[in-house]
C-alpha cells in the first residue's frame, strides 16, 4: 500500500472517531476516500489487509460505519446500532482469528449480546436487554469479527419479507420498491449494498435463501445441528431453524462455517464431521453429480415462467460442467408438512409471548403485536399436545422419505421462490385475513420449507435475473450433513459464472 493511501485511510478513521464523538453526521466521503476499493474485497480479503498491516481494524470499522449510515438511510437495514460497542472491542484488542478486524452485522432475532437491546422485530420486545450472550456471537467474536450492529427482521421472523411495524420496511438495493426478502432481509440488504461482505443470517423456513435470492447473493443454510443456537435453547421451531450467513463470495461462507460450526453444550443434534475444512472444499472438484431437477414444489403451487427459465439455465450450466441432470422430485404430503409446521411454530411463539407478558406485564394486543402474529398466537393456544407430538413425527417421516429419495441423487436443484422478488407490502404481517396471507406466503415460498423440515443443507446461488433485472437464485440441496458437497459445487459455479462484481446500480 502506498504511503499516501495509508495516510488517507488513517485520516478517514480519525475523522470517523471525531464525528462519532461530536455527533456531526456521517463520515461517508471520508470513508470512500480512504478505501475506494472497499467493495472489491470479500471478508477474507479484508482480513488479509489487516493481517498484512495495510489497514487497521479501526480503519475498517469506520469505513463500514460510514457506508452503513449512508445506505441505511435509503434501505433501512439497521435495527440496532452498536458502533460504540464495536469501537470498544477494537480498542481492547481483537483475537487472532481468521476474520480479525472484519466489520460484521448480526440479525436482531435470537442473537443476543449481554446488555444490548434485542428487539426481535417487535414492539413487544422494545426494551428487552438480555443478561447473556449467544454462543454463536461468542464464536463470531472469537473469529475476530467486529460486530457493529444488528440487522432488521420481520416480527419474530414470521414471513418471507423484512417489514415490521417496529422497524419499517427494508428495501431491496436492486430496486427500492421491492422486498429484500426475509426474514434475514436486513442482512442481505447490507451485503448487497456493499456495507459489509458477509453477515449473519438465520433460516427457519427459507430465511437465508430467500433474501440471498432476492438480493443476488450466496446464502447457505447449514445442516441441523451444525451451528449453535443457544445457550437458552439449542433448537428453534422444532429443529427447523438454523444459523448461517449471507455473503458475496462462497469462500467467506465456508470459512465462517469453519469458525462457528460444532456442537454446543446440551445440543440435541450433531451434524457429521466434514472431510476436511469447509474452506478447502470451495476449490475442490465436485466430481460428476447426479442432480434431480425439481421445477414444481411439493404443494403444486404455480411457478413463474421467468423463474423456471432461470433454473433451467442453471441446469444447462450444470450439464456443461459435466453433471447429470434429470427431472425428479421427492414425494411429500405438503398439507401434512404445513400443518405440522403451523403447530410447531404457533405453539413455540405462544409460549414465548406468554413468558414475556408474564415477565413484563405487557399486554398481548394489537398495540404490541402485529395482526398475523396475533393469529399465530391465538392458534398456538388451540393446539393440543398430541398435535405437537404428531407434528414431530410427521417431520421425521418426511426427513426419512427425502433421505431415501436422495439415495439416487447427490443434489436437488430447484427454484428458491416461485416468483421474482415481490414489491413491498405484499407479504408483511399487518394483514387482516390470516388465511389469505398464509396461502399467499406459502405459495411464494413453496420450495424452501421442505429442507428445514428435513434438516438438510441448502443454498441459494445467484445465477439468474428477472425481466426487470432483479436477482433470481437457484437452490441446491444436498444430503444431510453434506455442506462440503454443496460448497464444492458452489465454488465450481462461482468460477464458471462469476457474480461477485455484479452489484446494484450506484453501489461501489
Let me know the average pLDDT. 93
Helix content percent band: 40-55%
Task: Report the CATH topology name.
Answer: Amidase signature (AS) enzymes
CATH architectural type: Alpha-Beta Complex
The first-to-last residue Cα distance is 20 Å
Spatial order of the strands forming the largest sheet? 8-10-9-14-15-13-11-12
- Sequence stretches where pLDDT stays below 50 over 5 or more residues: 1-28
Outline, from the CA principal axes? globular
Could you name the CATH homologous superfamily?
Amidase signature (AS) domain
Largest sheet: 8 strands, mixed
The domain count comes to 1
Structural class: alpha+beta
Question: Briefly, what CATH class?
Answer: Alpha Beta
Strand percentage: 5-15%
How many strands?
15
| Rg over CA atoms | 22 Å
Tally of separate helices: 17
How is this structure best described in words?
With 508 residues, this protein is of the alpha+beta class. The protein has one domain (3-496): Amidase signature (AS) enzymes, CATH 3.90.1300.10. The protein is built from 17 helices and 15 strands. It is globular. The chain starts with a helix and ends in a 12-residue tail after the last helix.
Label this structure with key terms.
17 helices, Amidase signature (AS) enzymes, 508 residues, 41% helix, alpha+beta, three-stranded mixed sheet, disordered N terminus
Break the fold down into its secondary structure elements and pairings.
Layout: H1 3-22, H2 28-34, H3 43-51, H4 57-75, E1 78-81, H5 83-92, E2 103-107, H6 135-142, E3 146-151, E4 163-164, E5 168-169, E6 171-172, E7 175-179, H7 185-192, E8 198-203, H8 209-215, E9 218-221, E10 242-247, H9 250-260, H10 278-281, E11 290-293, H11 305-320, E12 324-327, H12 334-360, H13 371-380, H14 385-405, E13 411-415, H15 434-444, H16 450-454, E14 458-465, E15 471-478, H17 483-496
Parallel strand pairs: 2-3, 11-12, 11-13
Antiparallel strand pairs: 1-3, 4-5, 6-7, 8-10, 9-10, 9-14, 13-15, 14-15
Helix pairs in contact: 1-2, 1-4, 2-4, 4-5, 7-8, 12-13, 12-14
